[in-house]
Amino acid sequence: MAPGQQVTALEGARTVLDLTAMLMEAAFEELGEGTILASMPGYLERFGEDNARYLAKHGTRWDPAQGAVAALTPMNVVSRLTGTPFTMVEATRRQAVKRLHACEFQEAFADRGGFPRTMICQLHGAAYQGSVNGLVERPEDGYDVEVRSRILFGDGHCDFCVRSRSERPDTPDQEGESPSPPPEEELAALNVDFYAFILASFVDYMEAMLPPERVAAHVLGSARQAGSRLQGRRGFRGDAGTVLRDVLHATGHRFAEGARGALVTYCPNERGIRDATRRSPPERAAEARRQAGRMCAAILEGAIAEAVGPVRVRRERTEHAGGTAWHYRVEPEGAAGEGER
Amino acid sequence: MSGMASPDLDWPDERMVLVVTDGAHYREAVPRVAAALTRRCHGGVVIAANRPAQMLRQTLREHGVDLSGVSFIDCISSVAGLPPTPERDVQYIESPTMLEKMGLRAERALTGVPGTKRFLILDSLSTLAMYNGVAAVAEFTHNVATRMRLLDVEGALILVENVAEPGLLDAVRPLFDRTIEA
User: Fold this and answer.
1) Which CATH architecture describes the domain B16-181?
2) Which distant-in-sequence residues (6+ apart) come within 8 Å of B83 by Cβ?
3) For residue B127, which residues of chain A lie inside 8 Å, CB to CB?
4) How many CA within 13 A on the CB side of residue A23?
5) Whole-structure pTM over 0.90, yes or no?
6) What is the phi/psi pair of residue B165, to 5°?
7) Which of residues 151-180 of B touch A (CB under 8 A)?
8) Using one digit for the tens of pLDDT, what is the confidence trace for B127-139?
9) Cβ separation of A31 and B26 shorter than 8 Å?
10) CB A118 to CB B81 under 8 A?
11) B79 and chain A: CB distance < 8 Å anywhere?
12) Helix pair A282-308, A212-234: axis angle to 10 deg
């Protein structure tokens, strides 16, 4: 991977994770930890199930009836996509222990309070729980996942123990087959896409629990803050248009120059957002997608505001030869303009 | 938010009050209820099922609620796997599913409240229903309401409408002397 591409993948993923952490804190404040602890893990389990089914549809092969290691196949694919190193500490059909040697949430969550850190660990465990059971036909033939150690709480690694509910032999088991890793550039895009899936799932969850205007307020505030932090890390310089293009580039978008702004022809988050909201009721899914668009514009506003002062970023849907694209335009704050926010 | 005075809530004279709020007003509702009851009573007990006691206490202080004579029963920190921090005014319960233990602890804590005018706040029935189901929470509410009336304690149980399990409001409303919105 070229150095520029590495930065692109890193900044895109980091910004999305930053935003997820901020929204999570806002949701704690609004809904209360008790409500989230009771309702969110189930939501993330469904996310894990969806992820397993998605991978099965796209070339990953495993038989969850075989054993605990085979059942971990889809999450191992994800770990490879996100570049998270892991080893199998125990690998039998009855029980598997997967050890992550790095925490993908460390940077965004390390400085947060105990509850957000606990929550992200529980949610990570819930995603595993859903994923290992994603293709299991009967619940009694499935698996239970326990998070046994947590890097975010000072442990040297995160251990996910997967235990068979039914009597499976204590004999060695092995992972299923996954297609050859995609080219580096595609891998980087899939990485960002996966985190966008988590973020959009969380926004969709908030939509289910809170009035849309409250979600919009949190989404906009947090996204602007994530944009400011991105600008703080990268220090983009120049006029508003230049910063707009630099931020889009840094977060993995591909674009052509527009007449007044930038025409985005590829958004690294789009598939993740679409997939995360697919199972929701149509109205809520549409609203969650609108929120995702607003977040994107607000990240840009946050970054540009740090460099040149307050602006509004507007997006307009356009069609181009290859499909749908988005035209981004920067305006001074307070300008009456058209286009989606 | 720091130092902000809680907006006044017109508190009714009835003994058992169901406080219905929604996700948009929940953050403000708990301090408003606590402010109203701490003004009326000598002290009381807050069952924290939706927010860890430490955070709830901080929020109440930021809203200017006088917490002298108030103790907390925290049912949620342990679920998150956070170790309980020993504090004089906080008791921890392992899980919000332990309704009977919660009731007993609340009653015992109320006996330690100085003065004759005491209150119990429960935050919230909606959270308890997520862990226990509507029927179990309705039964628990019935028990709490009966005990509080016998002990002459003012009770305010909070219900967050848009996150509540379907049927919860209808199941518990008849158990109260009055329902207010906050």
Assistant:
1) 3-Layer(aba) Sandwich (3.40)
2) none
3) 32, 34-35, 38
4) 30
5) no
6) -60, 145
7) 160, 162-163
8) 999 999 999 999 9
9) yes
10) yes
11) yes
12) 40
